[in-house]
Amino acid sequence: MLETLSELTPGDFFPTVRRGRLDTLQGNLGYRCNQQCRHCHVNAGPTRKEVMAPAIVDTVLTFIEKTGVPTLDLTGGAPELNPAFRRLVTEARTLGCRVPDRCNLTVLEEPDQADLAEFLAGQQVEVIASLPCYLAENVDAQRGDGVYHKSIRALKRLNELGYGQEQSGLTLTLVYNPGGAYLPPDQARLEADYRCELAGRYGIRFTRLFTLTNMPIARFGSTLLSRGEFDNYMRLLKSAMCPANLDSLMCRSLISIDWRGQVYDCDFNQMLGLPMVTGNRQEIYLTDLSAVDLEDQPVVVADHCYGCAAGQGSSCGGALS
Questions:
Q1: What is the Rg, in whole angstroms, of the alpha carbon atoms belonging to the chain?
Q2: pLDDT tier, 158 (very low <50, low <70, confident <90, very high otherwise)
Q3: Of the given ranges (21-25, 114-118, 143-147, 160-164), which has the lowest mean pLDDT?
Q4: Edge-to-edge strands of the sheet including 208-211?
Q5: Which band of pLDDT confidence, cut at 50, 70 and 90, is reported for residue 174?
Q6: In a 3-state reduction of DSSP, which class is residue 74?
Q7: Which of 94, 67, 8, 13 minimizes the C-alpha distance to 273?
Q8: What percent helix, strand, coil does the chain show, rounded to 5?
Q9: Burial (CB count within 10 angstroms: exposed 0-12, middle 13-18, buried 19+), residue 8
């Protein structure tokens, strides 16, 4: 698998980006997942063993309490498969944190997760759900046979609990990413298509749609290399660079931590092994950050960052423009 863009030196190509005010702590709870999607930038799957330990979960909660960071964004793998997931969610919500959960939907059908949907609703967790298309053949080709219909069943269950329903307070966000080496279409227009198709076919409702650009790293990067498409895809990202997106890049207001508690400027840098750099420190853990002022600090960048700035832009919160 392509783990690093070895020919790149961080900062040599992409414009300099500096941090603004921190508003999101994104925690990767581990790389174990019940799926193994071909576009996955984490290389997650059922055989991965990395998992955030209870002691690191305690560090996350202490950081939230000390800093008052308003959002704890949980990702993986499938974050729900971490045994400490429910404790982390419950205590973070008690501390007043907004908690989005990046859910692959099929995890709701795992035998040991029978009450997961009810737990998420009870804690008013924001579900950000992967559904890369509204057509079964496209989803199954990207995420595995049978994933589409499992996802539809999960969405119906979430709807029954109030997710995606007006005035319920339960936010259900769907996530689209392209099936190949091209940029996502216009987010607003695609959202309208999703609403029409999912409501018409299944009566499913949702709050909003995010479109994400596939990053040329890890499993997707390896696929591009094997098909001889890597260089063309990088040229596409660079040619579609939109400078207006730079002020809204998620790395300006987010930090990402891995299962060990090491800090990165974003989840993609985490997967490339490009940790946050502050002053002379080349390796920073969450326990080091409570006394560090991150505002105006430079972000570690490389050519993969064009994926976030290309076209309408891409972030964990969808399109930037």
A1: 19
A2: very high
A3: 143-147
A4: 208-211, 172-176, 126-130, 100-103, 71-75, 24-28, 254-257, 263-264
A5: very high
A6: strand
A7: 8
A8: 40, 15, 45
A9: middle
Tokens linked to 177: 């990413």
Cis peptide before 77 (omega within 30 of 0): yes
d(CA 153, CA 106): 9
- List, as one string, the DSSP characters of 260-314: T-BEESSHHHHHHT----BTTBS--BGGG-TT---TTPBPP--GGGHHHHBTT--
Query: Which helix H or strand E contains 61, and what residues bound it?
Result: helix 54-67
Question: Is 256 within 8 Å of 269 (Cβ atoms)?
Answer: yes
**CB of 131 closer than 8 Å to CB of 175:** yes
Number of H helices, E strands in the chain: 10, 8
CATH number for region 24-309: 3.20.20.70
